[in-house]
YdcF family protein
Amino acid sequence: MISRFLSLLVIVWALGFAVFAITLPRPAGDAMTDAVVVLTGGAGRLERGLDLLARHRARRLFLSGTDRTVRKKELAARTGRPQALFDCCVDLGKDSVDTRSNAKETAQWLGAHRFRSVRLITTDWHMPRAHHDLAAATRGLGVTILVDAVPSHPSFTTLFTEYQKYLLRRAAAPFGY
């Protein structure tokens, strides 16, 4: 009886992993949102957010998880974007260290600006957990989240690890973690 139950759990876990890997989120369209939030750490994320901001698809961009030593001037030079774009419309979040604290930092920023819609940009394999955490952190703020995943080619190890993290976040969420 116990072995059957454990076998069932393994099968459900394996099917869940297959669905997770096959149904990674895709890039969003060109819809307008109040804000764009970019989670640092992956190729193409910042460029995607800046492109949307430059094309007036959002009013402001929040870059969550930046190193405390990073300055807007350096980002403008690195990305080849005008300094004026950073000065007017980009905010740097320097208090987060992981996905969960990205969500808390972002929720505070969204609330302070009273934004009602946000485009969340992160890598495709990271999006399920990032979206889950941001949705939990913004509960009660009335914020609509548009998922905009940057495509990647994750390794099996990356997908496997991220799936475990996602499952743990989902399991811990009802307990306030």
Notes: The chain has seven helices and five strands. Strands lie at 35-39, 60-64, 90-93, 117-123, 144-150. Residues 2-175 form a domain with the Rossmann fold fold (CATH 3.40.50).
